Amino acid sequence: MTQDAVREATARALLRRLAVEQAECRVPSLTAAIVRDGRTAWFGARGRVEGAPPTPATQYRIGSITKSMVAVVVMRLRDEGALRLSDPLEEHLPGTALGRLSIAQLLSHTSGLAAEPPTAWWERTPGMPAAELLERLGPQEFKHRPGRRFHYSNVGFAVLGELVARLRGTTWLKAVQAEVLDPLGMHDTTARPRAPHATGYAVHPYADVVLAEPEHDAGAMGPAGQLWSTPGDLARWAAFLAGEGTGEGTGEAAGEGGGVLSGETLAEMREPAAVEDGDAWSAGMGLGLQLARVSGRRLAGHTGSMPGFQAAVWADPADRDGVLFLANTTSGLSGSLTTDLLDILHEYEPRLPDEWEPVAADPALLALTGVWYWGPRPYRLRLLPDRALSLEPAASGGRASRFVPQDDGTWLGLDGYHAGETLRAAADHLDLNTFVFTRTPYDPQAPVPGGVTGWHA
Hints:
This protein has 457 residues and is an alpha+beta fold.
């Protein structure tokens, strides 16, 4: 794990926050790391594992973080054309009672499926084969109308794991290993623990004693939470989620996704597909990635918990930062450790904005910049790098979007109201999905639909 250290004062503040968490929450051992620009900038540890402080190579169970790695393989299958996210499950996994669910609904936890499987407490008992689990999943497992709401479902990711296995002709685990873990250099992420690893404990609520939690092969439920990993490997995962994928075994930045996914697909996974109820959403779900809005940041990643373990990994793509923790306790953490660590980092070592410098511009595009009118309302058109455009209201409010150039001379909406729509530019008007923008309000010389009769008192 390549490490570009933060300053001494920053490291001390980060370590103190970690130490407070470990002491006040009574955690047997706790590790955390900060990632910047694809590299580990800080690692900290408190407590003991087998009598020694944990290291970046100490394994912990990561629980549901496993889901995000399975989701990456599903998105790779989509990008290859092996499936569409809108496909009903029946097209690829026939013969189940879940056939009408779409793959996107399973990824975003909007399928309406039960949270837990119709088995004994799956996190504490050995699992069953996928065929047996699928036989048990009947109509009674639907708790909500598909697509109606966000309802977290471990069952849904067990089904996605079997989908991956069928389409890849191997196990979900081998597919994740070959397509995600190995390319990112995550060689210490395994299905079962290897030394050195932490033992999972429950801490007594009213006494300073612990109880060892069981650990089993979860079988068909494995895609929902089987994997073990290390701070070193999860730092690589955080870098990947931030769009700074790492080269195999080097720790060096290797561009968006490190070859595992395109930048566009990774960004798609980070888009909100569902949000938790509330007046203003602070948590939601993308395609296999949990989302959070904290202190003005838009974070993407995943939390994980299994008996004896808690973990989280979050990435801030805007700042190219990541944060993670791993702990061997069933419950009791504060819930704010990761965001507090990011706050400390940004307070002590805020990023400097990139230096502005002029760039060459196509004169024809430069001539398009300036004020355009949608009816009577002024908009500003700006030229962005790589021939992209930004169209935004001159005053506050309204529909703002960015557009990227296409081979046919048009521009494609990148975000906002006009995402996916086509912008065509002429000397005297812009045509944006039938809306016509003119250089003066309702210019009578421009092809405004409905015609222009002229302004009058």
